[in-house]
Amino acid sequence: MVPPPIALDETAVKTKQPPSPLKEGDFNDRLLSYDKEGYPKLGSLMKALPEKIFHVSTAKSLFYFAVDTAACIASIGFLYAVVTSEVYRSLALWQQAITVAPLQILAGFAMWCQWCIGHDAGHSLISKEYKWLNSVVGEISHSIFCLTPFVPWQLSHRRHHTFHNHLERDYSHQWFVREKRDELETWVKASYATRNFHLPFLYFVYLAVGVPDGGHVIPFYGRLWEGQKLSTKLRGVGSSLLSIATAGALWANMGFADFTVVCMVPWVVMSFWLFMVTYLQHHSDDGKLYTDETYTFVKGAFETVDRSYGKWTNRLSHHMMDGHVMHHLFFERVPHYNLEAGTNALTDILGKEGKGDLYKSIETKAYTQEIVKQFDENWFFVNEKQIIRE
Q1: CB count, 10 Å around CB of 286?
Q2: How far apart, in whole angstroms, are the C-alpha atoms of residue 122 and residue 197?
Q3: The whole model's pTM is what?
């Protein structure tokens, strides 16, 4: 369950070329069709990919959910046992911190893996046969284990996928044009000036304060909720109350100090993983953003980036990092356990078609250093030349 040691080698950008030879029968024997700008049409790409990568297995989904649930309970339970032991209580404060830090990192990583399962639930990829299972797993995974109200997150995340890499309509990411930074509001400038202190807390701000998309804990304000039906808002309230009740019950039973050490510090670790993965997969030196005049779904999807954090980190994180392009192309069709095979098939097809340059992949084993470096240098800025306006 522990992620591999962070490598210190520099990040390298690569594309998966040349493509591996296609074996007979691997893909449907047809060429892709293209739009007027030379991007493959989504329907033709789907037909060219192996049908098996679109298969959603309820049993397999529930197996991974069970594994990550066990990992969360075991890691947090062991941490709680240590924190409430007489030996731990007898230690000095600095000794206590050193003792629990590795366990908090482990528990936080387990919560991150559990969050990835809830992510599949948000895309209705736990089950296509029993659709109610997606809500059940999502509420348990996100609202309870990860203290992330499931329904509000599901709504905002779908908007993100619908308008990925759109300058104004993308959710989860707030883009600012670097050349116009002198025109930013005072509070935005202050946020930029103090950016290096924000990384562990940005997900909390996103959920609790509702910047930039709207309230996730109090689901009634912000652009996310404009035009939403009352029934949808009530479902959002239900998810929020479930998260609040979970946190409240744990706090009441553990007390503030133990709740902070056992639950909230691992939650901060989880949120760091979530922000790091999300940020790095939507920021690259040659990444493009689009406007209403230039945006298409396929163009936006191919501006996302696959990143490899190392073999086992990728696997334990359910290929959330190294299967991201495939996920953005088919976010409600390919479950996490098929992302690796789907990505390999995608890169082979693009290579065969002479379109391998559309796919971006970056080796990022030094991921902690990379997020600190990128966030310090770029924050939420994008250069004007990266914006395709016409």
Answers
A1: 9
A2: 30
A3: 0.91
